[in-house]
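Subject: two folds for Thursday's group meeting

Dear M.,

Sorry for the delay on this. The cluster queue was jammed most of the week, so I only got both jobs back this morning. I'm pasting them in the order they finished. Each block is the input sequence followed by the predicted structure tokens. Could you check whether the formatting survives your parser before we put anything on slides? The first protein is the one we discussed after the seminar.
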Amino acid sequence: MSVLALQRLRSRCFLLAPFASVLLLACSQEIASESRDEVLHSKVLSAGKARTPVSATSLVDSPDTLLCVLRPYEPFVQPKGSPAAIEINRQLTQAAYVADDSHWALVAYTPGKPIRVAVVNQGDLRVARIQEDLCEPAALLRLAYDSDGQVTFVRDQAK
């Protein structure tokens, strides 16, 4: 390859580099920014790192807010047949939620309002592999830990 051909190739690579970084950034986003809830995310991380079981009502504004756990690779809430799940899943699709092994999510939903999603990196706070499919009012849930110290959301037996 001639020196001139190498210079042309190098200049083309430099011109394309900014576009590649934008594309990489766009592909790495798990959900649209308008659905992301940094306050909920912060509360989940704080409660999880404290390693003390807490009521899920401490994470949201209302005890009636539905909280749904999306495990890694789980793009939709379960069970899919309920009216709330249908609406949540519609909004997750609209917000372009991407599920993979690097994160899990907690979806907060109040009927008639947009979903709020806390996307939690597994490296920051691991969700238990045994996490069951849950989509329940916050008043009925608590954040707890399994025997490996991984966070799990469970139905609050005291309620």
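Second protein, same layout:
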Amino acid sequence: MMYLEASDKSILNHLVELQDYLLTKGYKVASLSKELGGDFGNTLSVKLEKGDLNIIYRVVLSQSNRMIFVYVKSQQGSFTVQDYLKYIGNDTDAALFVDSKQDSDYKKFIEVVVALTDKVFKENLNTVVEGREWVEIPFDWGDYK
């Protein structure tokens, strides 16, 4: 495992501390990791597992944009919570996963994203999080069309 600096550990620990909802649904923290130089630069990840379901938070450590991607993965496929929000027409909330202004600290940004993600899991994706149903979210090709 890659060496985690104190600031990395602080971010990851804060992200784990906020996982009350998923932990009450039977998810367990499976891994904490750091990736250098991936598609989005350096990232920190928290992976939560329940059976074949995975919820993965990827925190992008960028100088220009703060971003958090929240992946929902199973044997049936995968999607991001951001893509789900866009799919249901909620672009306003989907935009909250990116903080280009960086006017708050990372912990506050993480709190906003986790609170929003929990709300989506409770109100829209409860049956997916519980493993009773799966939803197919078309991939948004955006500018790559």
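Two things I noticed about the second structure. Residues 6-129 form one domain. The two ends are 37 Å apart (CA to CA).

Cheers,
T.
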